[in-house]
Structure formats: C-alpha cells, structure tokens
Request: fold
Amino acid sequence: MARYPTFPVSRFPFPVVLLCLACATLSKLSFHEPELQLQEINVTGVGLTGGTFDLVFDVYNPNEYRIRSTRLEVGVDLERTHFGDALLERPLDLSPTNHSRVVVPVRFEWTGVGAGAKALLTRRAVAYGLTGTVLLETPLGDQRVTLHGSGNVPLKPFIR
Reply:
C-alpha cells in the first residue's frame, strides 16, 4: 500500500489536501458576461457606392481573470434600418476588472440604407440597434455571449 506524506498538523495525505485547496479556489471562480457599450461611431470613408465607419465600444470585464475574445460578429441598425454587419476575428485581450476600448470596422453600401445614411451624413447623433455574438476563452472554458443593445450614439463625421 502506497504511503503519502502528511502535513505536520493533518492526518490527511498531501494529494487529498491539494485537491481540496484546488476545489476551493475553483469554486470562487465564476463567469460574468462582459459589459459592452457603444460609445461613438466614427465615419472613416464615404464613396459613390457606400462607405466605412468604426464602431467604438467600451468593454468592461467584471471577472477577476483575463478573458480573450476569439470572434465578434455584430449586425448594426441605424435609424431602424439594417446598415451592415461586422466581423472581427483578431483576438482581443480583456484585462481583469478593467475597461477596454474596442474598435470594429463596418463597410456599408448606399442601396437600401435610406434614413440611416441620411442621418449618418447630416446629424450629430443617431439611433442604433446592435445584435450579435462574441466568442470568449476563459479559464472556465469557452463562452458564447449574445449581444443586444440600442440607444443613441454620437457621430464623429468624416468631413469636418
């Protein structure tokens, strides 16, 4: 029969104590979804067939550990008109209990965007709606988070 060393103040073998400590540490870890808020839209280009803009997000990681996004997909509506879809596949590291600025480029075409396009070019703020998903790597395994948001956001125009 194998004999394991014990702690001087314990009758329990070392592997049992180590397992208990590991379980106690892991039980304190839990996953909380990051908070994502659209801060502004920066118009970066306008052409005959469409244009580009950047969605600028403030992302807060409420967790006590670093998480990493592996993929971000988001659909954008402006003035209740679907304006475009964005895909960000480059990894983003989100520091523990910290805010991060995340910029997501969007390309759009003029056809079918009507009121949203007019607002994008003539107003200082625009009503938006976002839907999408983000894939995250965490110490607790991969997580898929659904994104939903709406409100008004300031525009930073391309032409000043």
Q: What stands out?
A: Residues 14-28 form the longest helix (15 residues). The longest strand covers residues 141-156. Residues 21 and 27 are 10 Å apart (CA to CA). The mean pLDDT is 82.
